[in-house]
Amino acid sequence: MNSRRQFLRKLGVGAAALPFVSNLNTFASSLMATTRKQRLVVMFSPNGTVPWDFWPDEEGDKFTLKRIMEPLKDFQNRTLVLNGVCDKVRGDGDNHMRGMGCLLTGTELFPGNIQGGSDTPAGWASGISIDQEIANFLQSKEETRTRFGTLEFGVMVPDRADTWTRMSYAGANKPIAPIDDPYQMFRKLYGQVKDREVLTSILDSVQEDLKKISRSVSKEDRHLLEEHTTFVRTMEEQLRQAQSSDVGHAIPELEQGIKEENDNIPQIAKMQLDLMVNSFVNDFSRVATFQITNSVGQPKMRWLGIDEGHHELSHEPNENKDAHEKLTRINTWYCEQLAYLVRRLSETPEPGSDGSLLDNTLILWGNELGQGNSHTLDNIPFVMVGNGLDFNMGRSLKYKHVPHNRLLVALAHGFGHHIESFGNPDFCKDGVLTGLT
Amino acid sequence: MRRNCVLPVSLVFVALIVLSVCSPLMAQVGASSASTNQAVRNLASVRLVSASADAAMERGREIYEERCIRCHGPNGTGTKDVPAPIFGDRPTSDLADVISRTMPEDAVGDCVGDDARAVAEWMQSAFYSPEAQARLTPPRIELSRLTVSQYRNAIADLGASFRWFSAPKPERGLKAQYFASRGQRGDRKVDDRIDSKVDFNFGAFSPDGEKIPEEEFSIVWNGSVIPRESGWYEFTIRTENGARLFVNDDETPLIDAWVRSGSDTEFRGSRYLLAGRTYRIRLDWFKFKEATASVALLWKTPHSVEEVIPTANLMPEWSPAVLLAETPFPPDDRSSGYERGTSVSLEWEDAVTNAAIEVADKLVARLREFSDMKRGEDNSGKIREFAGLFAERAFRRPLSDELKAIFVDQQFAAAKSPEEGLRRVILVTLMSPRFLYREHAEAEDQFDRASRLSFALINSIPDKQLLEAARNGQLQTEKQVRDQAWRLVNDYRSRSRLLEFLRSWMNLERLQEINKSTAVYPDFTPQIAADLKVSLELLMEQTVDAENSDFRRLLLSDSIFMNGRIARFYGASLPENADFQEVKFEPDRRAGIVSHPFLLSGFAYMETSSPIHRGVFLSRGVLGRGVKPPPIAVAPTAPDLAPDLTTRERVTVQTQAEMCANCHGLINSLGFALENFDAVGRYRDSEKTKPIDASGQYLQRNGELVRFGGARDLASFLARSEETHRSFTRQLFHHVVQQPILAYGPESISELTEFFENHQFHMKHLMVEIACRSALETSSAASQPVVAVEPQDSP
Predict the structure, then answer these.
(1) Spans in chain B with pLDDT lower than 50
(2) Which residues from A are below 8 Å from B434, CB to CB?
(3) 199-228 in chain A: CB under 8 A from chain B
(4) CA B420 to chain CA centroid, nearest Å
(5) How far apart are alpha carbons B108 and B33 in whole angstroms?
(6) N or C: which end of chain A has fewer CB within 10 A?
(7) Do A123 and B260 touch (CB under 8 A)?
(8) What is the rounded CA–CA span in Å between residue B252 and residue B419?
(9) What is the rounded distance in angstroms from the CA atom of residue B52 to the CA atom of residue B50?
(10) Mind listing the pLDDT tens digit for each residue in B95-106?
(11) In sequence order, which ranges of B490-551 are alpha helices (DSSP H)?
(12) Which residues does chain A have within 8 Å of residue B346's beta carbon, measured at their own beta carbons?
């Protein structure tokens, strides 16, 4: 913090302007970065996958992507498919709840009052999630600290806080709400910059106005207005300085007037992913989550000609070919979102280096279930893309029923955060998940 | 024979302490000093009895110039050696007495008798009295910005101008809907009722064994909360089940504990609430499969204890959302005894900026709540219209074409969408001096009158009716202004403003935490202190709300509002769980606020009473005397160092030194009259086996000594004392107008005090009179220097 203060002081930015210049934080820290940046994105889509259209048949670096993962074909050599990784956490709550609440926490839900379709009622997860754990680790060090540390993006997440709608936890009983309104996310990311722009132009007319009114008051009273004018000028000066050191990258232009409605999911997803890429360019955060709807999510993908809700379809037995054809198309659409993100990251240069953002970003795509109709927590469809961690990409891996806690530990290790276990330690006895590097 | 005196340094120092720092001759001007006619009348009467008054006056001037001026400077402004200026509100006889006993420092005894009298008299009229001070440096109506509370109220009323202002309805409690299901399914609703508060313990059972299953049920409470004071309110839900609380906002819960998880049973959230308004509230609660069910809705009001929200603060009626600016502001200048907006700072400018952003964010995000715009329609026309109205109402006058171009048209032209245009308009409007400053002389017209009237009476911008009246030229005559003032003084916000004034008149902001020794008063809990505060508030409300709105009730009331807890502590007979009610309690011994246990406990130490604190409150607060802080910090003598002395004896011994006695003579002899009440305000006949001596006295500013014994006697003196009336009038004026009363002419205070007396001490009537006076005063006229005040005969 000290160096940041000094840095700000050099700029001549006073305490009054500090709320407007917190962006400088990242600017300052990026100057000090010595090692490469590393980022983690966790993408979530609900209701399990269609195993036969998802899992590659082969193991190793020669494999064929099935229909659902076909959108990733340009990036197959940067993709790692993890079959056989299972959510072993049991206890209170039904599988949709545990699948969601334990996906990133690896630990049990507290007993509670939220009743699922079966099993006992449950509350929130009893521990922190891995995205937050890693973000805390990065924020604890000057060279990796960013303005936000972590950003939680959502797409059409229902407006209620419960075990099905939250996967990130700041700690036990501390779920974090994803922001699913792109305009709200925009305000969070760029509101200050926007305000600065508007304020600077407004302060001119405020000064004009003060001058005008000064003429009509007595000499003694004029003194107060003159003082006020001085402060307005100071403010303006500070804003200009802050503005000149604002991130040099253009603020993304959002399409205006997109309502939060089912049929707008494609636009909303794209807006959110664009904002995420932009936030990485500005180094606002090194960790992000991207949650499409929620556990038991019911998007109706009418833009694919599918009128039924996703969750409803996911209960259909394997024999219902028509339903599974739709489920495959639905999951393919999710993968297209992943592919869009991957493509954008690969096309966007990493500021201050030769590579692309994708070279320094790892995306983990997960789900609360292995498959919808069985509600299994085995074989969660985990896929990783990008080279943010030093994993050996371009392979299809097949594990034998390993607890997903070990994968969470591996993510931490990938950032140099050498924890021995994560979540319930019983599931980490065999150590970090091997075979990734 | 007069000697030329050169004071040794040490003596100068003593002089400084005695005369310049602590001397009762000194007092602060402004609010804490009285401008009194009594002194003037006193002088005048002296003049009448003395055949050679002018000669005596002339002689006084000569003596001052010869003996005093070298240290005290011309007009008592001080010199390098004795820098403290001399001014104050003591009677001439006191002045003469001090001069006789202490002056000149190196030749005490040289200036006594007629000489001392003559110089004292001349000092009074030349520079000592507040009137003389006002003549020397005439106060003026200063340009002021909105105070912080005016800012917040103005924002709230800008919001309300697009909805309506909602005053509390008489019915109390919350609407409750009971459901025989964990979700609020309409077809499972089994009961609609009013619950007086939310504090239920159902145990393992259901609220209704017949209609509601034990395993699952839910309740929704709806209505509004009514805060007494402005500040941060911490809400708490206590439940082992699931609950969600919404306050002033239907979309984002203040507390979301819908998911019960683990063993937490208390959930909190804070919100800033402005007094004088009601805030809608909704509590959703459900039980599902848990072994037991209970739910309580509590709050912690500013500086008080956590308690179940009392029935009196709940109403079943819904309220429209209040637009709240929660941005912290630096506190206003209160150096002259009342909040004034006569200074600005960078911190303030910063707060103004942040608050403008906050309001723009809230208003744009909740635009549909504040307008009739609909989803899915093209609202650009309506948004622009809204923006224009917003600026007009914020500026308290119609927008000229020129202003409309700057504040509306240009902003929309610079924006990419109508919403962004509105945002810009809100920002530029709220940062404009036209919003931030009170009426300035650019155009002295009826809109200025409307503003002055409105800020005086409801501390906020004019409402639609008032603006309409100004627009139609209906604030022309005094009667028109007075009619509007009467309409406003009966507005709920005005009641709140008057109560707020009474709190400041009683110095309540100094009594935020009352702690007593647990060894001596083990039962005096923070809850008792909080209850006593409510009891005092109820007396204030009763007095304000009464038809005659008679200020004297505050001093003379022979009853106390008590609930079961207070009654038990003070030994009155009420059932344990009784709610607040008026109780005749020790009516021969007690009188209104003078013996109200909240003030008696507040102005007292942990273990013993404090005649000094009580005396300062009575002399400074009630009688309006200028009492300066002590010249040196003196630790009070600990009671156990003087084990045989009563409090009265101990205080007397401790303050008998010359440099203390001048002020403490005044202070102590008022406070002693309340010695029948111990540190928690319980009545006592004796202390340390000695009988209580509750006799007191007061030397009035007209030089007459009044004696009294006990609280009732003291209270009845205070209630009839012109000094009390004058001080109350002056303080109310300052609170309401926020300009020095002397800037409204030297006679204002006397005229208004007389008005108050002639109208049976009707507080609202006085408030209307003050508001009308300030509204009809034009700033250009008021800026004229005050006409010189000469001592006059009283009519």
Answers:
(1) 1-51, 779-795
(2) 209, 213
(3) 199, 201-203, 205-206, 209-210, 213, 216-218, 220-221, 224-225, 227-228
(4) 40
(5) 29
(6) N
(7) yes
(8) 21
(9) 5
(10) 888 888 888 878
(11) 492-505, 526-545
(12) 14, 16, 231, 234-235
